[in-house]
Amino acid sequence: MSPASASTPSAARPTRVAVLGAAGRMGAAACRAVEDADDLELVARIGRGDDLTAVADAGAEVAIDLTVPSATADNVAWLIDHGIHAVVGTTGWTEESLEGLRERLAGAEGVGVGVLIAPNFAIGAVLAMRFAEVAARYYDSAEIIEMHHENKLDAPSGTARHTAAAIARGRAAAGLGPVPDATEKDPDGARGAVVDGIHVHAVRQRGLVAHEVVQFGGVGEQFVLRHDSFDRISFMPGVLLGVREVASHPGLTVGLDGFMDLG
């Protein structure tokens, strides 16, 4: 597919989908989900070391990237250059890499390529992030604990970073200052990372999949938001939503909530 041929997939036939990272657990689950969807057709499974030209040769209109942080930016750049919409679940994106992606998309203006980068595809996780932004307006204290399997490559998780940014927006909108914390000495980093002014604690433990707890504290009370993904199948409704909607949203969208009517 050439850049000039990028278009919204036809409703008269299944959307042609490729999965990058198809050999991984998330990739395998995505392949099954696409195959089970009547309105989608899996046309390419791309594993580590496979040539991306197979994606274009198969006529894919949308590619799902579930690879690794070291590969995803190059993969998405290639997809944009070939006029293929991208739904990205790989974490590790930074503000710098996102800005580079925006510039690349601006250079492809007129092609209409859409790119979704979703820190988390679980619908409940997306709702928790939105609720966290609302709750942040009303509480002095907020902290995040994110828990993932032992093979996760990055920390804090993209979900935790996205949640911290949401909390920071909520606090700024309410005119709240820094989260109160009298800690003066922490040589071992027990207070965790600080992301957008919010402490984030990362747990990596065998037996976990993806879990997040957001704790808010006020005078005499605590409010807790929690989301748990016990199986990777929990991410598939969000992946399919992204695949179905990405062509209708040219440019870069960060967060699945951009495709959801959450007010």
What labels describe this entry?
263 residues, alpha/beta, Rossmann fold, Dihydrodipicolinate Reductase, domain 2, 2 domains, six-stranded parallel beta sheet, five-stranded mixed beta sheet
Number of strands: 11
Q: Helix-strand pattern, N to C?
A: EHEHEHEHEHEHEEEEHE
Q: Report low-confidence residues grouped into runs of 5 or more.
A: none
- Please, how many domains? 2
| CATH third-tier fold name of the largest domain | Rossmann fold
CATH class of the largest domain: Alpha Beta
Instruction: Kindly provide the radius of gyration, computed on alpha-carbon positions and rounded to a whole number of angstroms.
Output: 19 Å
The biggest beta sheet is recorded as: 6 strands, parallel
From the spread of the alpha carbons, the general shape counts as elongated
Write the layout of secondary structure elements.
Layout: E1 15-20, H1 25-36, E2 40-46, H2 53-57, E3 62-65, H3 69-81, E4 85-88, H4 95-107, E5 114-117, H5 123-135, E6 141-148, H6 158-173, E7 193-195, E8 198-204, E9 210-218, E10 221-229, H7 236-245, E11 251-254
Helix pairs in contact: 1-7, 3-4, 5-6
